[in-house]
Design brief:
heterodimer; A: mainly beta; Immunoglobulin-like; Ferric Hydroxamate Uptake Protein, Chain A, domain 1; 22-stranded antiparallel beta barrel; 5-stranded mixed β-sheet; globular; B: Serine Threonine Protein Phosphatase 5, Tetratricopeptide repeat; Serine Threonine Protein Phosphatase 5, Tetratricopeptide repeat; 2 domains; two-stranded antiparallel ribbon; 19 helices
């Protein structure tokens, strides 16, 4: 960030410097930044005591005439001035160190605004993208984990390009959106497609947290806002290239589960009288163990690679500047048949008039990406989840065919159910191996993101602006369940009796979001101390989505990939004595639209750098509500007091001390389901007709078309905005020339008129209506600290930490819920509890008398029955209350070693994978799934005290996992998210090369994790249960950055 | 220069502001229909009617849960665990009546029938706004007659399952719904007497509206109305009416012969069908109530109970054994062998799909048995015996012996047993035990080998309140005025 600010200053320096020349000898050199080794342009170099001076050029080079023993003074904004005495050498290179006290961080605020840490009244954290640059993650948001206080980043899957769930300051809604609004260069953006954005193009991330910051986004800001800006060129700079590349290797982080080997599982089966082990002699088991002991992890997982190339070109003239980039990323997943590829280009152009009163900008990014996935991961499906198969596959099944090559079917014959069900259910592992080898599950995304804006100083102090933005995304999905795969023949309506199997499903989605913002700003300073700024805005959004999907069962494998593969719908077959049409295609298409209209204003007043107040007001109309409920009004007030500007703190250790306070309201109108007319839409399209009952066409009786009331849209004319009132108190501080700096925030957010899908009497055509009931509260504290332990020309040692604590409580629910909403999951929503509070039977160990599981009933008495009426709150919840991270940074000359850690704490999740490995339920010994050696501890004789119930227990481990707290585990973790070792070549090495900057780096992602979680990856998107999730990977990468 | 720029900006802003406002704040999706603009023509009313029929789903369910047909078989004594069982139905078979899950018979029966009624009411209300020309009047009347018939059917089904005390006019009935209610309404139940009167009035109104020229055995026709009136008369205890109507119905609908009987279950013969629900490709697959995929030797998670099998094989040559237990796929190791595989054959699939069959709602054989019951109750035991014999003769190769009934109890007991053989897996047994079983003191008494297949209880006394379904929990939570049924 610093560099960008300083480059801007170049321009001004050109006017203030004088130029003079004298004889003496010519001294040359390069001035660089000590922190990162980058050349510094625009540094003024003056011969002390004279008026002779020059500026460094764009490559940090200078040339000046000076005599020996004269002193050169190097000075630069926000850097400590450095003096060098001329000696014998004609070359004087200087690495300048930052003047931390003078540095005022830039804060990106909403609607294209910019403020600084000293003057902002809002609670906003702006993060320079340098902190996450060159990471081996395809989806950039993942890298924010642990970097911003109060921002929870959770990633559901290790699938390359997977989305992350981001929750700012706690869950703020029950039935609606909980993730923030994202804007890229001012354009509201689809949150679920960050994989299509090139991370290298991003300049800053700004997280808007309190009401004074988010209220300006009134209609969409209730869960916070993340404002992203992309890189720009600089006026008056030469043509510059930057090329960066990296190569990484990913692998499974850990294999936490202890699994039985061939001999162990066969012995266990034999001892318990079921399964393939029964009747085998010791010798036979030994022979089998000697022959096969498959580690299914090795079969399903692989070491994979990541490759990244990025080239950017910047240039700037007097009136225009430009940033152009092209990049290519390829990330292979660690699970077989998963990968991600992305190609992207961007051009950011800025222009201005000679008098600088008129400016115009165009940012345009295009990308194409292709993802291969495995749909079934994260489900408990035996036949569709490959990750589950890697855990539960039996070790005595061979992964090889007789000829020594890796098998893709294990001899299982497609279409014959008995070969992988019943006694052969162990062969499910081959079904999965077969499916990932043959099936296709692919996404292709084309994304175009563009915005155009102009501003013009119409009158003195009055500026008018207009922004037009478009976010275009088209996505094609192709799912092919191969007709020749084991499951292929079962896909027809006629089951495996049909001659052709397999399913081909494809869909196209086109999502276009447009935004127009018009603004008029007046800013003036009176008497040098009173600054007044007033801005009015009108905003208009329209989003359009079109979806078409096609699915056909019955594929001719010989022609797969061509149109000939589809068996015609009029094909008839004689099945079960009847002539039927087994191959009927299904076609679906629909288009939907949403819109928003708002006008709002913002006013601020500052006095002499000491005080500032700001107020915003916003009126929003939503088509989702009718009548008086249509318009919502949201407002905020905020103020600051810079105590460091007061006389009593002058000349003390305090370099910055600013107190902030804000209060305001934000609205949410995204009510209702995002599944409309059978299409799962992005969440901004949810609830398109919620206020009016809808009549739809349904499947009618006897192959007819019918008109029926839509059970999912009974209509509630009383619906209105969900409103969040937020209070924030903050302190920004810096001591000892900002050697120690940071901020502290206390907040409380109360969301009322909560959107809730309320039960209605079943005499209606549907069961629920969307309505406003209840209240939810989040309160917490956030702390950010940065400390520079030591800094000089060569050394810089610093560290810092972020952390937050959030308490989430449901204050009130709808009357008819009796204070508790139980949708039959592991968690319920209840008054006085956080959202996602686990409501379970309390597990109380294994009865030493009979080996059955024991529970506590509602009164705390021991019982063997698992009665839903005995469920209680176990004081554990799915979302973390603690979150944060810390970093260390050590640099010496060109070397830099940095680490970044992230943690979440006090969150819980059920580990169904572990339960499956400890399964001892009735008739499960021969269920064809591997076990953990823990089952050897199973109760055997009266008096045995153990944690594993008897073999054949009435309550299966599955039941215990989904009903009791036995497998509800602490999913807190501390993870070394990233470690980087970098080396920047000294400038003198580059003298004779075309390069101005060369950096080599090695990075490690997820190298270390500390957790009590007993599964393979504690990371999650704050889900309640792990049942075969694709774990995130460990990535080691190497790369370089070259400027020329 | 300056002015030109100023002008450009102004134009841009004007454009921005002018296309704002209404089109972003008054958005209606293309193709959106509300109740006000959905029904415009008689054919729209017909579309509405198609949707009402579509919601009559006695065959609702699958994979271990379901409504009428499933509940009636599993709760009683018609099934045992099948060879493919993973425990589907084990709780219900163990007499655990659930009213919380959306898969429970309590929930499904209550919801399906009220949804059918709600749909019917919306179409009936639309008659007020749809212009009907003279030439359309006959058609419109026929539609309205069917709507009223279906609304009566829905209320009758609800009454049968949820009324705790048949015949007692002051006892609890169900919510009578003959209007489009407000979504927030919380209505109490009407009395049994009020619900009966309401059903009668709908049926009375429906009859004259129906066009005999359009009669079909897959739609509500005049005879279906008659059949509904007969069923209602039984519930009400009005046996003379039941006798009159069943006499008319059996006169009009002959019994299927043995070959036709088997074909009927394959949906290729309609001889004795008064009304069946058409099921086509894409509809609910009724066989999935008992099988994972479709009828085959190792796919059934539920099978015919040994008890029912024994009953049907008691006298050799009963075609109903072939119709109930699949010959080809079953394995019989011996009488009451736990290893018997008794594959249910009532839903063998049809041209519409391997698991798809039409749902037989009213068959003339049922009305022979109703006739027999009404005759016995009228004191005419000889006529009753003759009626039962008539039915049996149609099912056996040779004529059967005339049963002898010494008294009413004997007659009713035999009729109950005959109903079981004739109507198994068609959604009757539970209600038969509720109505006749309670009167006769006959509850559930399963063959031990059947209950052992689920390690479940074997018997339930006829007085048990579980022969009436509980009001679903979801209704109780959302409707503070609803009265619950007595429980033990």
């Amino acid at each position: 960030m610093k560099l960008k600010l300083t480059w801007l200053m170049t321009f001004f320096m050109a006017f203030v410097m004088q130029f003079s020349f004298s004889q003496e000898k010519t001294i040359t050199g390069i001035v660089t930044s000590g922190a990162d080794g980058l050349p510094l342009p625009g540094v003024s170099v003056i011969v002390k005591g004279t008026t002779r001076g020059v500026q460094t050029d764009f490559d940090g080079k200078y040339s000046i005439l000076a005599a020996t023993n004269e002193i050169l003074v190097f000075s630069y904004v926000s850097m400590v001035s450095t003096e060098k005495t001329i000696g014998a050498s004609n070359i004087v290179n200087v690495a300048m160190t930052e003047d931390i006290a003078a540095l005022d961080e830039v804060v990106i605020i909403g609607y294209g605004g910019q403020s600084s840490l000293r003057t902002s009244v809002e609670s906003i954290t702006t993060l320079s993208a340098e902190k996450v640059e060159n990471r081996a993650n395809a989806a950039v948001l993942q890298s924010l984990q642990g970097q911003v206080a109060g921002v929870n980043v959770g990633t559901a899957s290790g699938q390359p390009g997977a989305d992350s769930t981001i929750i700012i300051r706690g869950v703020g809604s029950i039935n609606s959106e909980v993730e923030p609004l994202y804007l890229i260069d001012g354009v509201p953006t689809n949150r679920d497609n960050f994989k299509t954005i090139n991370p290298s193009d991003i300049a800053t991330f700004s997280v808007l947290k309190d009401a004074s910051a988010t209220s300006l986004y009134g209609n969409r800001g209730s869960n916070g806002v993340i404002v992203i800006t992309t890189k720009r060129g600089t006026f008056n700079e030469g043509l510059k290239f930057q090329y960066s590349t990296s190569y990484g290797i990913s692998e499974l982080q850990t294999q936490s589960y202890d699994l039985f080997s061939t001999s162990e599982i066969l012995n266990w089966q034999r001892d318990n009288g079921a399964g393939d082990g029964v009747g085998l002699s010791d010798q036979a088991i030994a022979a089998m163990a000697a022959q096969t002991n498959t580690d299914w992890y090795d079969v399903f997982f692989k070491q994979s690679t990541t490759v990244n190339h990025n080239l950017s070109i910047t240039s700037g003239g007097e009136k225009t500047r430009n940033f152009t980039s092209v990049s290519y990323t390829e990330q292979d997943g660690i699970l077989e048949s998963t990968d991600f590829k992305r190609m992207s280009v961007r051009n950011n152009f800025n222009g201005r008039s000679a008098d600088e009163k008129f400016t115009y900008n165009l940012n345009l990014a295009l990308s194409y990406s292709k993802t291969n996935e495995q749909d079934g991961t994260g489900s408990n499906s035996t036949f569709f989840n490959p990750y589950r198969a890697s855990i539960f596959g039996l070790p005595y099944l061979s992964a090889y065919d007789a000829d020594g090559s890796q098998t893709i079917d294990g001899g299982v014959i497609p279409g014959v159910p008995g070969t992988f069900t019943g006694v052969n259910s162990k062969n499910f592992v081959y079904v999965l191996l077969n499916s990932i080898s043959l099936n296709t599950d692919q996404l292709e995304d084309v994304r175009a993101l563009g915005n155009f804006d102009v501003s013009y100083e119409v009158l003195k102090n009055v500026t008018a602006g207009l922004t037009v933005g478009v976010d275009y995304r088209s996505e094609r999905t192709v799912d092919i369940l191969h007709p020749a795969s084991i499951l292929g023949p079962f896909q027809s309506e006629q089951g495996n009796s049909a001659a052709f199997g397999g399913i081909y499903t494809t869909g196209d989605t086109r999502d276009v979001r447009t935004t127009t913002l018009t603004s008029l700003n007046y800013t003036n300073i009176f008497n040098e101390k009173h600054e007044v700024s007033l801005t009015g805005y009108v905003e208009y959004n329209r989003d359009f989505i079109d979806i078409i999907s096609f699915s056909q069962d019955g594929l001719d494998e010989r022609f797969l990939g061509s149109t000939n593969a589809f068996i015609p719908a009029n094909t008839q077959e004689l099945i079960n004595g009847n002539l039927v049409n087994p191959y009927l295609p299904v076609l679906n298409a629909g288009s939907f639209t949403t819109g928003l209209f708002s006008y709002f204003g913002k006013g601020s007043y500052t006095y002499d750098r000491k005080y500032g107040i700001q107020a915003t007001i916003r009126r929003d109309a939503s088509f989702r509500f009718i009548g008086d409920n249509k318009w919502g009004t949201f407002w905020s007030v905020a103020g600051r007091w810079n105590l460091d500007q007061e006389a009593f703190l002058e000349n003390t250790a305090v370099s910055l001390l600013k107190f902030r306070a804000s209060y305001g309201t934000v609205g949410n109108q995204l009510v209702g389901s995002s599944v409309i007319d059978g299409f799962g839409l992005p969440t901004n399209y949810r609830g398109l007709n919620v206020a009016t009952p809808q009549i739809i066409s349904g499947a009618g009786y006897n192959s007819t078309v019918s008109l029926i009331p839509n059970a999912n849209n009974l209509g509630n004319p009383d619906l209105k905005w969900e409103t969040t009132k937020a209070t924030n108190f903050g302190l920004d501080f810096g001591f000892w020339n900002n050697k120690l700096s940071g901020s502290l925030d206390l907040y409380k957010r109360v969301t009322s008129d909560l959107f809730f899908s309320r039960n209605v009497s079943l005499i209606n055509p549907g069961t629920n209506i969307d309505s406003n009931v209840g209240e939810l509260e989040n309160k917490g504290v956030e702390l950010k600290l940065d400390y520079t332990i030591f800094a000089d020309e060569d050394w810089n040692i610093s560290l810092g930490a972020t952390g937050s604590y959030n308490e989430n409580t449901v204050n009130k629910l709808a009357l008819e819920t009796n204070g508790l909403i139980d949708n039959g999951g592991l968690t319920v929503i209840a008054e006085g509890q956080p959202v996602g509070a686990y409501y379970l039977n309390r597990y109380a160990g294994v009865n030493p008398a009979n080996g059955e599981s024991l529970f506590l009933d509602i009164d705390g008495n021991i019982t063997e029955s698992l009665d839903p009426n005995d469920r209680v709150f176990v004081d554990k919840a799915q979302n973390p209350t603690w979150q944060g991270g810390f970093y260390t940074n050590i640099s010496y000359k060109g070397f830099q070693l940095s680490t970044q850690w992230a943690y979440v704490a006090d969150l819980y999740r059920v580990n169904l994978e572990l339960a499956g490995l400890e399964e001892t339920g009735v008739n499960t010994v021969s269920n064809g799934q591997n076990r953990s050696p823990a089952v050897l501890r199973a109760w055997q004789n009266p008096g045995d005290v153990t944690d594993i119930p008897r073999i054949g227990t009435g309550q299966s481990a599955f039941n215990l996992a989904v009903n009791s707290d036995k497998y509800l585990d602490d999913a807190s973790f501390l993870r070394l998210r990233n470690v980087e070792l970098a080396y920047v070549l000294p400038v003198k090495f580059l003298d004779r090369t075309p390069f101005t900057y060369v950096k080599f780096f090695a990075q490690g992602e997820n190298l270390l994790t500390f957790t009590k979680w007993r599964g393979n990856d504690p990371e999650s998107n704050f889900r309640t249960i792990d049942r075969g999730q694709y774990p995130t990977s460990r990535i080691v990468s190497f790369g370089s950055v070259i400027n020329f | 220069m300056r002015n030109i720029k100023y002008f450009r900006i102004a134009v841009l802003m004007l454009i921005a502001v002018s296309f704002s406002c209404d089109d972003a704040t008054e958005i209606q999706q293309d193709g959106f229909l509300g109740p006000d603009n959905a029904y415009n023509t008689v054919s729209d009313l017909q579309s509405g009617l198609n949707g009402v029929y579509a919601r009559y789903l006695p065959d609702n369910g699958g994979n271990g849960s379901g409504g009428e047909i499933y509940h009636s078989s599993v709760f009683t004594d018609e099934i045992k665990a099948g060879v493919a069982s993973n425990g589907q139905g084990s709780q219900l078979y163990d007499f655990i009546i659930d009213n919380t899950s959306t898969g429970s018979a309590s929930y499904i029966t209550w919801q399906d029938n009220y949804r059918m009624i709600a749909r019917a009411n919306r179409v009936i209300e639309a008659f007020n706004v749809v212009p009907i020309s003279a030439s359309e009047q006959n058609n419109a009347d026929h539609i309205r007659g069917q709507l009223l018939g279906l609304r009566a059917l829905g209320h009758l089904k609800l009454l049968e399952y949820f009324a705790p005390d048949y015949g007692n006019d002051e006892s609890l009935g169900v919510i009578n719904l003959d209007f489009v209610n407000d979504v927030n309404d919380q209505l109490p139940r009407n009395t049994f007497g009020e619900t009966v009167a309401f059903i009668k009035s709908d049926l009375a109104a429906a009859g004259p509206l129906l066009d005999p020229g359009q009669a079909s055995n897959i739609f509500i026709n005049i005879d279906v109305i008659k059949a509904l009136r007969t069923r209602l008369a039984l519930v009400e205890g009005d046996y003379p009416t039941a006798l009159t109507l069943s006499n008319q119905l059996v006169a009009d609908y002959p019994l299927a012969n043995r070959a036709q009987y088997l074909q009927m279950y394959q949906d290729t013969d309609d001889t004795e069908l008064i009304w069946k629900l058409s099921r086509v490709s894409g509809d609910n697959d009724v066989a999935l109530l008992f099988f994972f995929n479709f009828i085959s030797p190792d796919d059934g998670y539920l099978e015919v109970s040994n008890e029912l099998y024994n009953d049907l094989s008691e006298t050799a040559g009963d075609i109903r054994l072939d119709a109930t237990v699949n010959n080809e796929f079953s394995t019989i190791e011996g009488v009451n062998s736990p290893n018997n595989i008794l594959v249910i054959n009532k839903y063998p699939g049809s041209a519409d799909g391997q698991a798809t069959n039409d749902i037989k709602v009213f068959r003339s054989s049922e009305f022979w048995l109703i006739k027999a019951e009404a005759e016995a109750r009228a004191g005419n035991l000889a006529a009753s015996a003759t009626s039962v014999k008539t039915l049996r003769d149609a099912r056996f190769v040779t004529a059967t012996d005339l049963p002898t009934y010494a008294n009413l109890t004997m007659a009713l007991t035999d009729i109950l047993s005959e109903r079981r053989k004739e109507l198994s897996f068609e959604g009757h047994r539970y209600l038969d035990l509720k109505r006749l079983g309670r009167e006769l003191g006959i509850g559930i008494d399963r063959n031990p080998v059947d209950c052992a297949s689920f390690q479940a209880e074997c018997s339930l006394p006829s007085t048990d309140p579980r022969f009436t379904l509980p009001i679903p929990q979801a209704e109780i939570l959302a409707n503070s005025n609803i009265q619950v049924n007595p429980s033990n």
